[in-house]
Write a structure and sequence with these properties.
Order of helices and strands: EHEEE
Structural class: alpha+beta
Shape: elongated
Distance between the termini: 16 Å
Radius of gyration: 13 Å
Strand content: 25-35%
Number of helices: 1
Largest sheet: 4 strands, antiparallel
Length: 67
């Protein structure tokens, strides 16, 4: 396993994550929880419309993983 020079994400989570789902409070909570764990937003979200609802994808990166 590669060492990033910083602590690893908790609970065996990957250093890079993409959270996806409808643009609702549940997705906002999931992103907020990841930030509270120590993840950083990676760029802005990707947003699309599936004909019924807005779908969002937000990438998150563990600090030090991009160095």
């Amino acid at each position: 396993m590669r060492s990033w020079g910083v602590s690893a994400p908790p609970n065996g989570l990957p250093v890079y994550r993409v959270l996806t789902g409808p643009d609702d409070a549940a997705l906002c909570r999931r992103v907020s929880e990841a930030i509270a764990l120590g993840y950083r937003l990676h760029e802005g979200p990707a947003v699309t419309f599936n004909g019924e609802q807005v779908i969002v994808a937000q990438a998150l990166l563990w600090p030090g993983a991009d160095t």
